[in-house]
Design goal:
The complex is a heterodimer of chains A (about 350) and B (about 325). Chain A has about 350 residues and is mainly α. In chain A, about 70% of the residues lie in helices and about 0% in strands. Chain A has helices at about 1-30, 30-35, 40-45, 55-65, 65-85, 125-160, 165-180, 180-190, 195-225, 225-235, 240-275, 285-295, 305-330. In chain A, helix 6 (about 125-160) crosses helix 12 and helix 9 packs across helix 11 (about 240-275). Chain A is elongated, with a radius of gyration of 29 Å. Chain B is mostly helical and about 325 residues long. The longest helix of chain B has about 35 residues, at about 90-125. Chain B is globular and about 85 Å long. The chains are: A mainly alpha (about 350), B mainly alpha (about 325).
């Protein structure tokens, strides 16, 4: 909001100074020069307004101005990169290996120290390796769910909002799906398919796409009868072209925001699904699994590190996505471009 | 108006029937192993008898018609596993009041804190208080609930010197669950009230009121707030009815004997009658909430008319 006001101020100031210059220039000219005809100039007629404005470049320029968001984006990219190179670093343990000492006893609940950077869990697995493997799984889930939901949600949402005949049916479908408890669907899917990352992503998309579609539909309803769309319809533009060229570009910033918020929501959802006992098997570490394991040890203060470390990573990832999403959606709004 | 209401109620009933039928069919897709605790040791004959006792051998339409027939007579059936041979309605009537009490307390807290917060944020837009509130809202929205609920329980119980387990008769034990449950809603009400109030404050009637010389606070709370609250009012009945459903997280964290985890438990235990009863309750709450929300908006803002809106679409 502030930005817009200041932007308008500078533009007005520029206009005013331009006018002053013109007036001063006119004062120096004689009457003859001022009131003679301007000759025909073929070159000047051909000249058109030229602007090197490019939507995406301006968006990135505006985004790069937000230092905090750029920093978080860099950190997040490093984090993602690190989850992939961590297993290849020297001296790493396998996240699922139960580590024994010389006498064959398991290293149980070793506090963070030299041998185990972040300690071990209650059955002797290295927490450092598990956290990175878990972050990888959770980020993968978050990104895939957001992408799939956006694809399905946008397609259905645009049709739902724009085609009047579809509105009634889809609204009824929404009322029904929205009232069937997600738990039933999740449990049924975990019975039919074997539990794993793919199943979880599928289940989360199955229950999540309709919310995305409804969000897009509400946005479309607001702009579908604006004058420029009515004009396009009158000129006989095909419906799909109106959808792709008129409606979607208008919604880029809100869709971006919504997608960026879906990622932390999906990661949080994974924690919740694990919490109610429908999550990934324990040999697939995920942040949900780790937090759930850590939660069981909450009563003994010495073991709390097993809960603290995963939650720190989880909070960092979700907050980063949230802030980056907000910054990017601000940048994607052409009203904030200079 | 009455005609519109009648149509709306009729459609809601139809939606309810469809939801129940779908859930009923989905439940019949569950593998039959789950119905018997010692499935491996049973002979096919025993399994057949067991299924017949539950009425699962009849064709699906017969089962559905029988279920709706019982429902019309007000009979939800009896629980089979969760609390064997106790009527579903009785199980629910034990659990629902606890959740409602918790939910209503939390709703009062979130409205009493969230609305003033949103209003003050709009009043001091871009000043210190607004930034503080925004920070709070960002944190609540970005950090998964599971995490901060855990830490509230961890440090809250030490601070208040209460045990980790819930004691229903001691009011001190209600503080933490109610507080954690409210946080999310405080952020919700605060964020949207601020948004609507900021939008509203650019309108002409606000300029007129200011031109007449009404003080800034007077305009804010007498003119803007009343208009900005209308779109929020839509959510209040749903929030109120949702208290019946309870919160899985909170109730299992503090072991509160409410509705929270009940649905998950009974689905896992294959207690079909219980699942159907609970789904009926949830769906009623959802459908009724929407209806009441629309009605409340009409009551608060005489310019909104439901019947007309339906006509011009």
């Amino acid at each position: 909001m502030m930005k817009q006001f200041s932007y308008r101020h500078t533009k007005e100031a520029k206009l005013m100074s331009g006018m002053n210059e013109a007036v001063e220039k006119a004062a120096t000219l004689s009457d003859e020069e001022l009131f003679s005809f301007a000759g025909f100039n073929a070159e000047a007629v051909e000249r058109t307004g030229y602007s090197n404005y490019s939507y995406w470049r301006s968006t990135f320029q505006a985004f790069l101005k937000n230092k905090g968001a750029v920093l978080l984006l860099l950190l997040l990219a490093l984090l993602l990169l690190f989850t992939f190179i961590q297993p290849y670093l020297p001296g790493q343990y396998d996240p699922n290996r139960i580590i024994n000492d010389e006498s064959g006893m398991q290293y149980r609940n070793i506090p963070p120290g030299d041998q185990f950077l972040l300690g071990t869990n209650s059955i002797g697995q290295d927490l450092w390796a598990r956290i990175w493997a878990g972050t990888r799984t959770s980020l993968l889930i978050g990104l895939s769910v957001a992408l799939a939901e956006a694809l399905i949600g946008i397609t259905v949402g645009v049709i739902w909002g724009y085609v009047r005949k579809a509105d009634f049916i889809l609204t009824e479908v929404y009322n029904i799906i929205d009232n069937i408890p997600n738990t039933i669907i999740l449990i049924l899917i975990s019975y039919i398919l074997k539990p794993g990352v793919k199943t979880l992503i599928f289940a989360m998309c199955l229950t999540g796409w309709i919310q995305m579609a409804r969000f897009i539909r509400n946005q479309i309803l607001i702009i579908r009868d604006r004058d420029y769309n009515v004009a396009s319809r009158c000129l006989g533009t095909p419906t799909w072209k109106i959808m792709v060229k008129n409606l979607l570009p208008y919604l880029v910033s809100v869709i971006m925001l919504r997608m960026a918020l879906t990622i932390p929501a999906a990661i949080g959802n994974e924690v919740f699904i694990t919490y109610i006992g429908l999550g990934l098997p324990v040999d697939t570490p995920s942040l949900g699994n780790l937090i759930n394991e850590g939660r069981a040890l909450i009563t003994s203060p010495a073991l709390r590190y097993q809960l603290v470390y995963p939650t720190i990573i989880l909070s960092f990832v979700t907050i980063s996505f949230y802030i980056i999403g907000n910054a990017f959606s601000d940048a994607a709004d052409p009203r904030n471009h200079t | 108006m009455l005609k519109y209401l009648g149509k709306r109620v009729g459609r809601s009933l139809l939606t309810l029937v469809i939801i129940l039928t779908i859930v009923f069919c989905l439940l019949r897709l569950m593998p039959i192993e789950g119905y018997f605790p010692n499935f491996e040791k049973m002979t096919p004959q025993q399994i057949q008898v067991g299924l017949q006792e539950m009425g699962l051998t009849d064709p699906l339409p017969v089962q559905i018609i029988r279920f709706f027939g019982d429902l019309v007579r007000g009979d939800l059936g009896t629980s089979r596993i969760y609390r064997a041979n106790v009527p579903v309605s009785e199980v629910l009537s034990d659990k629902v009041p606890v959740s409602i009490k918790l939910g209503i307390l939390s709703m009062i807290v979130s409205l009493c804190v969230g609305l003033p917060m949103g209003a003050l944020m709009a009043r001091y837009k871009f000043r210190f208080f607004d930034r503080l509130g925004t920070l709070f809202i960002v944190c609540i929205q970005a950090i998964p609930a599971a995490v901060y609920y855990l830490y509230i329980q961890l440090y809250g119980t030490q601070l208040l010197n209460v045990g980790l387990l819930f004691d229903i008769h001691n009011p001190k034990y209600w503080i933490l669950p109610v507080f954690s449950m409210s946080l999310n809603n405080i952020a919700f009400y605060g964020m949207w009230l601020r948004r609507y109030m900021v939008d509203e404050s650019n309108k002409d009637y606000v300029k007129l009121a200011k031109a007449k010389g009404i003080s800034e606070s007077g305009v804010m709370f007498k003119h803007i707030f009343r208009n900005a609250f209308v779109p929020l009012a839509q959510y209040v009945p749903t929030a109120f009815l949702n208290t019946v459903i309870g919160s899985i997280y909170i109730e299992s964290l503090y072991s509160i004997p409410g509705m929270g985890g009940l649905l998950v438990t009974v689905i896992k235990k294959h207690d079909n009658t219980m699942v159907q009863g609970i789904v009926l309750l949830y769906a009623c709450v959802g459908v009724l909430g929407l209806l009441l929300g629309d009605l409340l908006m009409v009551l608060l803002d005489p310019r909104i008319s439901l019947g007309k809106k339906e006509g011009d679409r």
